[in-house]
Amino acid sequence: TLGQTLCSRFLLGLTSGGLMAAIIPLVAELLPARRRGFYLTVWCCGRPAGALLAVILSCLLPRLDWTNFVFMMSAPAVVLYVLCRLDVMPESPRYLYLAGRREEGFLTLAEMYDKEMMCLPWGPDSVSLTTSSEVKEVKSGLRSLAHSDAAITAWLCLVIFSSHCASQCMRAWIPMILATGSSHQSPVMLLALSLLQAESPQPHPSPGLDRHLVMVAAQGYMLEICGIVICAAISFALTRRLLVRGALCAAAVLAIAATLAERRNLWVTAGPLYGLALVANAAAANFLLVFACERFPTSSRASAVGLVLFFGQVAELFAPSMGVIMLNRFSVQSAVLAFNSLYFVAFLLSFQLPLPGHHERTLHDIEAWFSCLEDSGPRDV
């Protein structure tokens, strides 16, 4: 039923959103001192890999029912749960100190420094815990307010909201056309196709899949996987400012070009353009989160990243709602182009962020190691 489908989608979104909000700060907390951008973004290729797996399963097993399909897609989550129960994933040192397990927390910190071939300069009793950001003196003036953590978080949320709206439309564009059977129809669904099907007691007849559109989707996901890995590998040589702003601008241009190519049935061109647009979108979103992890210290990093991801999830809820309204008045291509223009909005908003114009530097937590030779006082986790 429609209610059951809505409940299942809510639980799935709650779980996936919670995992993202927890894993990103954990990875940032356990980061090495070098090639930080690579380790923070390379694992994000799992999303297009899962989408590619879904396309392959749909083509190889066309008669597979929805229940078994969803079960197969949820299998990696079960594997992740088993690995967590086996303590394969390390625990957060901050949580260990917060829970009173100081010995385990200190051992985790020692292992982190040992992997970096660095000596932990503090003893077990000299490490303290900070539960919130230290209160700093508030300076008067609009300039100090514009560069405050609250203002930066607000701008980050707006940039993520705009880019995720465009991203959600772009990701649903080809699957929507595949589901409706034609790119020239005007369906009243953009991302809620499964919900509308669940509301109807009689299943809709599924038209034959267009192999050109399947090829476009598969090419897009494969290029996105390769692009995420390449962007992660070159992140140490490029500045965060170039990676974020350049990716947002490229995503806008490539998304519009892919829409126009599909409109003219240029399948050989539409596939690579669609994939490159997904690559640019993933690079912008990933390195915005990297900037959030680098900007905020350990004591406030999790809350800041969680708030930014929350606005991204709100955008994914806002996009289908606005999509249904726009599709009732405009064509599919017009709605897609309107959503793609939000990339330009995100690009303009990104100029309000103090994106670093230099190459990678050590995190605030690791920078304290260099000053330990002059000051042997207690350090915060």
TrEMBL record:
Membrane topology: Multi-pass membrane protein
Coiled-coil residue spans: none
GO molecular function, one term: transmembrane transporter activity
A single cellular component GO annotation: membrane
Main location: membrane
Top-rank taxon: Eukaryota
Transmembrane parts of this sequence: 12-31, 38-60, 66-84, 213-235, 242-261, 273-292, 304-326, 332-351
Cited Gene3D superfamilies: MFS general substrate transporter like domains
Sequence ranges assigned to domain Major facilitator superfamily (MFS) profile in this UniProt record: 1-358
Cross-referenced InterPro entries: MFS, MFS_dom, MFS_trans_sf, Sugar_transporter_CS
Subcellular location per the Swiss-Prot or TrEMBL entry: Membrane
A Pfam family it matches: MFS_1
Keywords: Membrane, Transmembrane, Transmembrane helix, Transport
Protein name (database record): CsbC protein
Organism: Symbiodinium necroappetens
